[in-house]
Amino acid sequence: SCQQKDNPRVSKGFNIMELTGAVLPQGKLVTGVKTGWKLAWTTLMRELAPQSDDGEYVRPSYAFQGEIGTPEFPDEAGRYHMYVGKACPWCHRVELVRGV
Fold first, then answer.
1. In angstroms, rounded to a whole number, what is the distance separating the alpha carbons of residues 71 and 60?
2. Through-space distance between the first and last CA atoms of the chain, rounded to whole angstroms
3. Given this model, what pLDDT does residue 4 score?
């Protein structure tokens, strides 16, 4: 709108849609970007996530099988640290349980 053009405080980000609109239709730009993100995501998951030979996700087994609060692993403030990935569904569940 005219108000946005006249108002220097309005941030339009990188103005990609306005800059490419004359050369490339917006639908083609959006489709191209979505395809690129999907390719990047599937490549990331294929290379980083543990998989079986047929490509299915396989949850790894971990060496720690103990229980915090036992004599072997006493419940002491500041002794344990938890690192979570905000985008991971399992980490999200751990955060929910920790919050309860």
1. 27
2. 48
3. 53
